[in-house]
Specification:
Length: 181
Amino acid sequence: CRVWDARRDLALAQVVALECSPFAAGEAPVFAHIALSERAPAAGTRIVCIGQPGADDLEAPGNKKTAYALVEVSAGRLRGLVPGADPQDNAEIGVLKHDAWTYWGHSGAPLVRADDGALVGLHSSWDDETGMRHGVPHVAIRAFLEEHMPPLVEEGEGLVNRATPGSREARENGGVSLISR
């Protein structure tokens, strides 16, 4: 883990080894990713949650297994933010509210806008009393990345870090090539 922000409930991982063919000098690996939305989503936005619920039924007595697939995709809507809550403080329960189905293993699952696939939040938990699902909102993700990633510059269809592949800065940042739109 390169950075962990307990208040926002976010972490930034650093890839330290790859199992692949060697890269030529000056090249860097490109990783599959989901682009961060350019704008904060509105309440009512249709979303898709892509998660891994786990094989163990943590709500049933004994050692019962679930019938869930390895990856479950569910649809829902964003239901706004918890009234009066600081959107940067997601330590207890995520400030973003949504109603896409989730289970125990979904923590950290991306919440993507249904119409364009852009990342608008990350699932974190649910409220046992209301059944409402919660997550880390777009505004907290963007602020976290702005604080902990190298400066971003416009390049092609997205924003990428300005570190030159193979440079000291790129090595210090784990070769990160973040696309944020």
